[in-house]
Structure formats: C-alpha cells, structure tokens
Amino acid sequence: MLGMYDMPALRASNDRFWDLIRTHLGFGPASLERSRDFWDIWRDPDLIFAQTCGMPYRTQLHDAVQLIGTPDYGLPGCPEGYYRSVFVARADDPRSLAELTDGVFAYNEPLSQSGWSAPITHLSRMGLSPKRLQQTGAHANSAQSVAEDMSDFAALDALTWELLKAHTDLGGALRDVAETEPTPGLPYITSKSQDAPRIARAVQAAIDDLADEDRGNLRIRGLIKIPASAYLAIPTAASPEAQLRSS
Fold first, then answer.
1. SS3 176
2. Which residue segments constitute the domains of the chain, with CATH numbers given?
3. What is the distance between the alpha carbons of residues 239 and 247, in angstroms, rounded to a whole number?
4. How far is residue 197's CA from residue 155's CA, in Å, rounded to a whole number?
5. Bridge pairing between strands 65-72 and 188-191
C-alpha cells in the first residue's frame, strides 16, 4: 500500500514502482491495495510492504511492525529521508502565523505527524495555539478548505504541498507562511513475519530501476535507514480535544 502519496496523477507511477519492487522481491500481490482501511493494512500480520506516517508508527505501530527504510524526496532544507510541515494561508491573506491562530486551523487528522502533531508542537513552542479547529480528512482537503475561505490556515506535508502545486491550481490560491523543523519522513514498514532487509534491498533496486518520468513524478531519490529511536523521540502533541480545552 502506497496511499500516503497516491493522488490520481501519481497512481500509474506508484503501480510501476510496486511492479519493480515485486519483481526484485520475487513475490507479493499483483497490485497495490487501495480499498482497505489504512490501519487494517498496517496491522495485517501478512503485510509485505506499506508506507505509514511517523505519528502512527510512533504512537501505535512500532511494536507491531518492522521498519524497511525511509524514502528520500530531496526536500529543501531537510536532511536525507526527512520532511517538514508547511503552514499555508490564502494568497491574498497577509496575516502572520501568530495572527492566523485567531482563526480556524484545518488539519487532516489527529494522528498525522505533518498535519497535526508537528504544527501544533511548532505553535506551542511559540506560545501559540489555534482558537478553532476543522478536521478535513486529507491534506488536499485542508488546502482546499483554506483556498475556499472555510478555514484560515493549515499545515501540509511538504511533499504533498509540492505535489499539489504541481498537479492542482492550489499553488496559486495559497501561500507559504512558515515551516516546522524537519522530522523523519514517512517510513516503509512490513510485518514482524517478513524479512525486512530483503525487502529493503528490493525497494532500493526498484528505486534504481525507475524510469525518469516515474522518478520525477514520485520525487523519490533513495532509501534511507533511520532508526526507530529517531521516530520515537519526536514529541507528540496533545489531541485536538485537549488542545481546545487548553486554548
């Protein structure tokens, strides 16, 4: 499952990426899974290969799965394999980040590192917190909510933001406001029953074999080994409910 970065414009490239992984691995399902619940896939004892978010891994999955490695997307200002959140507001909204916190903060879900935990931690360190919240279910929905004036600002995964600018008109509707500090990116995982080093070798070989067009679409540059301890050391923000009670 490669659902973290699987917008319609990338699905064919993700399919070809999985085909290469499967070829090098020598086994696995014929196609990517796109219909099952993410948590059901991540917790499946027969899971071969999936991408998850750092916060689900840190808070619930780390004892149940193995890390395969973390893809490097070459994001500006980030070490290899790391990413950050980008705060966005409407292009015609001149307010600073501090001023925007008086409005509505759109976030994808409470267990998102880039959409919730990283931005809330960033704001907390500035002595700030959003006064109102709107859960949207996806980064693209958060961006759309801001663009349509249903919320005032959002925090997007930096790679998702680059992909939205490349494949939608949201880049013209929104502007960057601020960035969080980098944290380890979205790791590939497998179940405890699998041979994680063997899968890692297959993934790296697949990355090496990607056609230039697919490599460009997916923005992937390599596979980085980031230890579990680096993920577990990231602070976890309070839940939206607790955040509202304290604001």
1. strand
2. 3-74+184-232 (3.40.190), 85-181 (3.40.190.10)
3. 12
4. 34
5. antiparallel
Average pLDDT over residues 109-134: 96
58: nearest Cα among 245, 236, 199:
236
Average pLDDT over residues 45-55: 98
Helix/strand number for the chain, H first, E second:
12, 11
Question: Are the C-beta atoms of residues 146 and 152 closer than 8 Å to each other?
Answer: yes
CA distance 127 to 119: 12
- Which token pair is 102? 């008086």
User: Is pLDDT of 22 > 80?
Assistant: yes
Mean pLDDT score, 79-89: 98
The token pair that represents 76 in the structure block = 């500006």
Looking at this protein, which amino acid is placed at residue 42?
W
The number of CA neighbours under 13 Å toward the Cβ of 239 is 3
User: Which has the closest alpha carbon to 97: 66, 67, 130?
Assistant: 130
Reduced to 3 states (helix: H, G, I; strand: E, B; else coil), residue 105 is: strand
Distance CA 97, CA 88 (A): 9
Phi/psi of residue 91, nearest 5 degrees: -60, -30
